[in-house]
From TrEMBL:
The keyword Ribonucleoprotein does not apply. Pfam families: MFS_1. It is found in: Cell membrane. Keywords: Membrane, Transmembrane, Transmembrane helix. This is MFS transporter. Residues 212-419 form the Major facilitator superfamily (MFS) profile domain. It comes from Streptomyces bugieae. The keyword Transmembrane helix applies. InterPro entries: MFS, MFS_dom, MFS_trans_sf.
Length: 419
């Protein structure tokens, strides 16, 4: 398993692109925590901190698919780097003005959120041209999902260390400066500079004119909802079981499960159509969420959350392949960005729904929201099979480019091409 990933990372440019993308995404991964810590350090209430964070999240959700469409039209360097700089300047504006002029603080969040560069979708568009082989692309998607779990674990730690060493304002500046450097590392690389999206049919709906994409977006909204509710329910569970680090145990176990599942999933090539495999993985993911309502003791609950996380990274990796197959030509960065956005919006909705559920029924009710989200995601996929079927069969003896023109490219080879 390790040898396969090592071989992948030894491919020219692969390690640089993965590392640069992860560093470039740190500002987005840590924004919620960093903004709350800054607002509290400035004397703001939790309500104000939450409102600022929410503005960032909403503008991020709006900006990602729009910037993704711009990348498909104009290339990565011309969009990614300016967007990264503008987003960092938004956070710098917040650090400079504080909360004394509230409208400026909110404006800073609008700028920082809207111009967050779509590095995640951009990397997935680059993998086919860098790795050349479909089986390696599938492994790269899995490694990408695993690395994402690591980033979301390490990012908050970096913010906390910056706050402890300097200040909450310095943490905003340092993390966003790192983000610009990460984005710069990606866009000056040869694959990013040479990448061009496939020929695009002009249509105002862009990636959303694909029925398959709409199905994926609907399903992963509910997966995000499940995860967002687990975060809230974990805190409520900790309050009911002595507080302390209990919620960290649960969320760390969830991430560890996803890490292990993603590593195993990406270590081999799976037979059959990814659309069918995605339904199975989402079903297993939903099945893993249901036992959380049992809320046993801390040791048992930690084990259950670990199991609940196992199929998350595989489901994400498989979804990336399915996006690649169903995104209309010339829209792949936008399509990946829509999936990321929907996942994030679902997570925010899940947190907002789990809050009242916990107030009324404790941690058990919060975990029930997660189970319902998993089942809803599965129901979306099962009820729309005719829209998310096999998009086409590769023509025997044809090149990937020829199959692409026929609308039946091998998975992983429709993302774009090198100029």
């Amino acid at each position: 398993m390790a040898a396969g990933y090592a071989e992948l990372l030894r491919t020219r440019h692969a390690a640089r692109l993965l590392a640069g993308t992860l560093v470039g995404r740190l500002p987005n991964a840590t924004a919620a925590l960093a903004v709350v810590l800054f607002a509290r350090a400035e004397g703001g209430s939790y309500a104000l901190a939450g409102a600022l964070s929410a503005v960032y999240g909403v503008c991020n959700a709006i900006g990602q698919p729009l910037l993704g469409r711009a990348v498909d039209l104009y290339g990565q360097p011309r969009v990614m780097l300016p967007a990264s700089v503008l987003s960092a300047l938004g956070m710098a504006l917040l650090a400079a003005v504080g909360l004394d002029v509230l409208w400026l603080a909110y404006a800073a969040m609008v700028i920082a959120g809207f111009f967050t560069p779509p590095l995640e979708g951009g990397l997935r568009a680059l993998w086919p041209g860098v790795l050349k082989r479909a089986d390696r692309v599938h492994a790269a998607y899995a490694l990408d999902a695993v690395a994402q779990e690591v980033m979301f674990a390490v990012g908050p730690l970096l913010v906390t260390l910056c706050v402890a060493a300097w200040s909450a304002g310095a943490a905003l500046l340092v993390i966003n400066a790192m983000g610009v450097l990460g984005a710069l590392s990606v866009v000056v690389s040869p694959p990013s500079r040479q990448w061009r999206s496939g020929p695009r049919e002009a249509h105002w709906l862009g990636a959303l004119r694909s029925a398959g994409m709409l199905v994926l977006i609907g399903a992963f909204f509910f997966v995000g909802l499940a995860l967002g509710s687990i975060a809230v329910a974990a805190v409520a569970y900790a309050d009911e079981h002595g507080g302390g680090m209990v919620s960290s145990y649960l969320l760390s176990a969830l991430g560890a499960g996803a890490l292990a599942g993603g590593l195993v999933y990406g270590a081999r090539d799976w037979p059959g159509h990814p659309e069918n495999r995605l339904r199975l993985l989402i079903g297993l993911l939903a099945l893993g969420y249901l036992p959380l309502v049992l809320v046993p003791g801390v040791a048992g609950m930690t084990a259950l959350t670990g199991v609940a996380g196992v199929f998350l990274a595989p489901a994400l990796a498989c979804a990336f392949v399915v996006v690649d197959r169903h995104a209309p030509k010339g829209t792949v960065t936008e399509a990946f960005s829509w999936l990321v956005t929907t996942f994030g919006v679902g997570s925010a909705v899940g947190a907002s729904v789990a809050g009242p559920a916990v107030e009324g029924g404790g941690a058990q009710a919060g975990f029930a929201v997660a189970g319902a989200g998993g089942l809803a995601a599965l129901l979306v996929l099962l009820s729309t099979k005719r829209f998310l079927g096999e998009p086409g069969r590769p023509t025997a003896g044809a090149t990937p480019a020829e199959n692409d023109r026929n609308g039946a490219a091998e998975p992983g080879f429709r993302a774009g091409h090198q100029a």
